[in-house]
Design a protein that fits this description.
9-stranded mixed sheet, outer membrane lipoprotein receptor (LolB), chain A, Cathepsin D, subunit A, domain 1, globular, 535 residues, 37 strands, mainly beta
Length: 535
């Protein structure tokens, strides 16, 4: 629900009834607004606060039991709250997710039992939540737009905080309760509706919440079944769950069945009676398996959902009984299935992506120069001498680092072993036009190949243009005159809070060590690096 961390869903091409706002600019004002002069924003806020009420003197604790549906799947959610601390546990069939906050630290656990703390990459949601709770502050960017007749007669308030999202809040004209909220996120308009308000502990809250982004199979729905208020909450119910280790190694250091073709890391696994090639993709927040391969290997899928990355496609959750790399295994691995497949330049078929859930189980050492990949037990790993040591953040299950483009600093560059070329996202390019100005090579490429440039991604293609910047700096390493692709307004692919991608074209110059358990990335210059830049 809003304000919660929920799994990122997939988005599909399908024909179904779509709401009127689905094909409009996601940040556009709602349709049908009529001016109003009989009430002010301050009066609406005052009446809203009166309608919601104030907590009584009981301890500020709650235990809530919800039923929950996500597209075609259904399950339950249990929420424990004590002051500012909370924990939510959600079950959908055989899959379990949890997230919460304890002592000011936010965390989440995915369906493979991996727990990680969040650094706050996605601060826009917090900015908007604060603005919505403090509409009379100038920083909220709030203004009363008028009133609408549907979904119910309501006053519409636009909320547009700096460094936040554009949002529209509907306050019921009769009750002054917040009954609908619309927010523009990642190129989509997400709509929450609230009803069945009930009073508990002196405060009126909705017992029914519905979320929709206008895409088939993406709706989520919560119905509160019970709420226990003011009773002590066992501290163990708020505890951060220990992280599981989904990968078992046969030794402290093993050489994985891998090869590197055109800088793509191909891992070969046994699933049932079939050999399956995966792309080791640090840009993937989980495990993805081609749907036809899943069917052929007897992997069971659950439900139907949708996602947008480079394009729209249907997907399902799946449980893979065993992924066997010989020297490393994963048992009962949670994954997604989708119509994904590709081939390397030599014709090797790739039927899936092996991302965070595999990489996080050990320290992964990629030797691009010699074409080998090792998995090292975290307790046996010592950082290599002479490495460029880079702290990473893993809020979305993908490694994010700071980097410099020219003289412009970006804090949120994704390190992506699945990306052929590094990329600057359009939002960063617009914010730093001088540092993302072409030094010559980009224009030469465009002149020689004057058609539209695209890169392939899961579900489709993304339009890009080549740009050579004056320099790329990662840690203490500065790479002059680096060629990037710059994405062209692809919000679903870019995400709202990322600056760009550091891809194989950079990584291939190093021995790379992914140490997710310590939130570190180590780069050791290899001969390819030394031949080009010395040192």
């Amino acid at each position: 629900m809003k304000g919660s961390v929920v799994p990122i869903l997939l988005c599909a091409l399908a024909f179904s009834a779509r709401p009127a706002w689905a094909d409009r600019d996601p940040a556009a004002p709602p349709l049908g607004i009529q001016p109003v002069s009989t009430i002010t924003l301050a009066q609406i806020v005052a009446r809203h606060r009166l309608a919601v009420g104030k907590p009584d003197a009981r301890p500020q604790t709650r235990v809530e039991q919800w039923t929950y549906t996500d597209g075609t799947r259904s399950g339950t959610q249990t929420t424990y709250r004590s002051g500012n601390d909370y924990r939510e546990d959600r079950s959908l069939g055989p899959f379990h997710y949890a997230h919460g906050e304890l002592g000011g630290k936010t965390w989440e656990q995915n369906s493979n039992g991996l727990t990680r703390f969040l650094s706050g990459i996605h601060e826009r949601t917090d900015v908007n939540d604060y603005a919505l709770a403090h509409l009379l502050l100038a920083s909220s960017g709030a203004q009363l737009l008028g009133e609408v007749a549907s979904p119910v007669p309501a006053y519409v308030v636009k909320v547009a905080p700096q460094n936040g999202y554009v949002e529209y809040a509907y306050f019921d004209a009769a009750t002054y309760l917040l009954v609908q909220d619309e927010r523009a996120e990642s190129g989509q308009r997400v709509v929450w509706t609230y009803d069945d308000f009930r009073t508990g502990n002196g405060v009126r809250t909705p017992w029914h919440i519905h979320e929709s982004n206008g895409l088939p199979n993406d709706d989520q729905d919560w119905k509160l079944q019970s709420a226990t208020i003011g009773q002590p909450v066992d501290p163990s119910k708020l505890a951060v769950p220990a992280s599981s280790d989904p990968v078992s190694l046969t030794a402290s250091t093993v050489s994985l069945p891998a090869r590197i073709e055109a800088d793509r890391i191909i891992l070969t696994a046994q699933i049932g009676k079939h050999k399956v090639n995966f792309l080791m993709d640090s840009g993937s927040s989980g495990i993805l398996l081609n749907r036809d391969v899943a069917d052929a290997t007897g992997v069971q899928s659950f439900g139907t959902m949708t996602e947008i990355t480079a394009g729209q496609y249907t997907a399902s959750d799946a449980m893979i009984p065993k992924i066997d790399f010989g020297v490393a295994t994963m048992t009962n691995a949670s994954a997604e299935t989708a119509p994904y497949s590709e081939w390397t330049s030599s014709g090797t078929p790739i039927a899936g992506l092996m991302g965070y859930d595999f990489i996080a189980g050990s320290v992964i050492h990629v030797d691009y120069e010699h074409g080998t990949v090792q998995a090292i037990a975290p307790g046996s790993f010592t950082p290599p001498a002479g490495a460029v040591a880079l702290p990473i953040r893993l809020d979305d299950g993908v490694p994010v680092i700071a980097a410099m483009i020219g003289n412009a600093a970006g804090t949120n560059f994704l390190v992506d072993t699945g990306a052929d070329r590094s990329m600057i996202f359009s939002t960063f390019a617009r914010a730093h036009p001088g540092d993302v100005s072409d030094q010559g090579l980009g224009e030469e490429i465009t002149d020689s190949l004057p058609f539209v440039h695209h890169i392939d991604g899961v579900g489709g293609k993304v339009e890009v243009r080549p740009v050579q910047v004056s320099a790329l700096q990662i840690g203490s390493t500065r790479l002059p005159n680096w060629l990037f692709d710059v994405s062209q307004d692809a919000p679903s692919f870019e995400g709202d809070d990322y600056d760009g991608i550091i891809g194989q074209d950079v990584l291939r110059n190093f021995d790379v060590y992914f140490d997710y358990q310590r939130s570190m990335l180590y780069l050791v210059p290899n001969d390819r690096y030394r031949q080009r830049w010395g040192g």
